[in-house]
Amino acid sequence: MYPRVVVLFTVLGLALSSDHLQYPDVPPKYDYNYAIIDDQTLNDYGHQETRDGGITTGKYYVALPDGRLQVVTYTSDEGGYSPIVSYDGEIHAHDYTPPHAHVPQAHVPHAHVPHAHVPPPPPAFVPYHGSHHGQPLPYYR
Fold this sequence. Notes:
Elements: H1 2-17, E1 29-38, E2 43-52, E3 55-63, E4 69-77, E5 80-88
Antiparallel strand pairs: 1-2, 2-3, 3-4, 4-5
């Protein structure tokens, strides 16, 4: 009984004290960025963003398969989201090697040879002789 009363008063105390917790109303302010470059998979992309109050600015980029870098520079404020898309670099044609063409082989059906059905051998029956430790086994109906 005692642990239940302690838990009840703890929960009640937390519920009453949460009314007094208020976070200050400050305008958001942050700055972050990241970049990924992986030579093995040819991934190259990143993002940078800064926010001060109601105005957010930033840019993100990604390396395209044709060799160019697509860059999106944006601003977001009370007027909405305003992106500017640009491309850096020249288009490079990749050497295309078509995959080896698969030539289907002619299907030659095999003659169906029926197999003789051989039933499995019957289970081995081993009769029980005697009792367990000299006692007869119980019989249940």
